[in-house]
Amino acid sequence: MSIVKPKTIILASSSPRRQELISSLNLPYEVIVSDADETTEPGLSPAEIVEQLSHRKAQAVNERCIAETRFETGGVIVGSDTIVVLGDTVLGKPKDAEDAFRMLQSLQGQTHHVYTGVAVIDIQTDERDHAAGRPLDKPETNEIPMYLGKTGQYRVTALSASGQPAAIVGHTVSQITFRPMSDEEIWAYINTGEPLDKAGSYGVQGIGSVFIERIEGDFYSVMGLPLNLLYPIVLKFGMSPFQSK
């Protein structure tokens, strides 16, 4: 009797936080770090930025899997990206400690938004040859989005030759309010090292949480991976954390 191996999730991220979150889905997963370019053209909305970068990360890993003929048992590649937006200013990861100080100084006592994108691509699907419809990294796609309450949405953006979803993209948005912070508190936080590899220069799951007054939206999206959005997406690829093994 042949044994059917379960599908695998490939996480296109080196983030320990995303790896921790993906493991909670109770599905087999591996990590292949994406080397995708993370620059974007001007004029994109925050939602378009995170969706485009999420897809770019996932597709870069997908191309490697195709070239290496890996994961023939099937599965999906998950790419994700997070940005912090204060007014009209997008805050990515700080360049150095001084940059982190400037970001945190601008966030203290204010309300900002966190956008997290997610892109899921069927492993071994080369969109250039097999997908029907527009490429995922075109933000003007006209696919009807599926809404996830008030926090997020996703849409199928490419189909396989058999008409099944080949690529799905989406995003969530959460609203965060910081309490006032003194310069001394900001520098003390920076000196812990926690802010230096995080969008907006803070970590909601770490000691930076002491500065957060209120969160409206999804905690895990702010942490880096929208599990409540990822769940209905992986279901469309025939994967479920509740399936028997």
UniProtKB/TrEMBL annotation:
Gene3D superfamilies in alphabetical order? 3.90.950.10
* Swiss-Prot/TrEMBL cofactor(s): a divalent metal cation
Q: Name one GO biological process term.
A: nucleotide metabolic process
Carries keyword S-adenosyl-L-methionine?
Answer: no
Enzyme class comes to hydrolase
Q: Where is this site: Important for substrate specificity?
A: 17, 82, 205
- Give the E.C. number(s): 3.6.1.9
Q: Which UniProt keywords apply?
A: Cytoplasm, Hydrolase, Nucleotide metabolism
So where's the catalytic machinery, residue-wise?
81
Q: Name one GO molecular function term.
A: nucleoside triphosphate diphosphatase activity
Subcellular localization, per the record?
A: Cytoplasm
Query: Member of which family?
Result: Belongs to the Maf family. YhdE subfamily.
Record's function text: Nucleoside triphosphate pyrophosphatase that hydrolyzes dTTP and UTP. May have a dual role in cell division arrest and in preventing the incorporation of modified nucleotides into cellular nucleic acids.
What's the name of the protein? Answer: dTTP/UTP pyrophosphatase
What is the protein's species of origin?
Answer: Paenibacillus agri
